[in-house]
Amino acid sequence: MSWKLATFNVNGIRARLHILLPWLAENQPDVLCLQEIKCQDKDFPAEQFADAGYEAIFHGQKSYNGVAILSRQIPQEHGSGFNGQWEDDQARLIWMRHGDILIVNTYVPQGRDPQDPAFAYKLEFFSQLHKMFDLKSSPDQKVIWCGDINVAPRDIDLYDPETLAGTIGCHPDERAAYQAVLDWGFNDVFRRLYPEKQQFTFWDYRLRGALSRGLGWRIDHILATASVAEACTSCWADEAPRRLEKPSDHTPLVAEFDFS
Q1: Residue of 30, 54, 107, 249 marked active site
Q2: From 30, 148, 188, 249, active-site residue
Q3: 0.70 exceeded by the pTM?
Q4: Which residues are CB-contacts of 230 (< 8 A; sequence separation ≥ 6)?
Q5: Active-site residue, 107 included
Q6: CB count, 10 Å around CB of 158?
Q7: Model confidence over 16-64: pLDDT tens digits?
Q8: What single-letter DSSP state applies at residue 96?
Q9: Separation between Cα atoms, residue 38 and residue 12, nearest integer Å
Q10: Active site includes 249?
Q11: Bridge partners of 57?
């Protein structure tokens, strides 16, 4: 069975429908995980996605954050947040079961600055995520964790690792916190296929001509337990949406799997 999953930080879902709906029609992923939808649940454009052939589950928040999953199948089970395990009032996590695969979509906090309380919150988010995986599943089961993880794991994932060393997105503490969750039992499907390839998923609006100049970061990831990762046949960042008018600062990351 061929199967396709993608993740995309849209940076405002209603502002990005002119990109997202044509992209869905052209690429037709089985599942699309969205982050930073920036709308309350009552304002989520579920009908437009239904017209495109997708069921939508969403966990929104006014003006900030927010996550959603679009699926061609009705989710067997789904939920949002940490289910009382940790009282987090920010809409940053949503999950569903797609057949025998648990899919967890996260918008990990950016962290602002290593000295800011938001950075401690980011580290705690990773810690609580690790606990959640322990409670909900095990590494020998089929699990995908994806989304805007807000960490560039290695220097190759940065356009200028020397200048950026120790800053947000590549600080040693957050890299270690991310790695601790990865060590639970996840494989980075892009890096597993392409050990030394440089490819970015995010280009900062504030850097003039960032995309054309190659000034990017790889901070959006698709992570999978071994049985899923071994079925991954390709993974790539589709830069085309980032080149369109009024784009997100991120672009979709897509992975294809063959479960035959």
Answers
A1: 107
A2: 148
A3: yes
A4: none
A5: yes
A6: 23
A7: 999 999 999 999 999 999 999 999 999 999 999 999 999 999 999 999 9
A8: E
A9: 5
A10: no
A11: 69
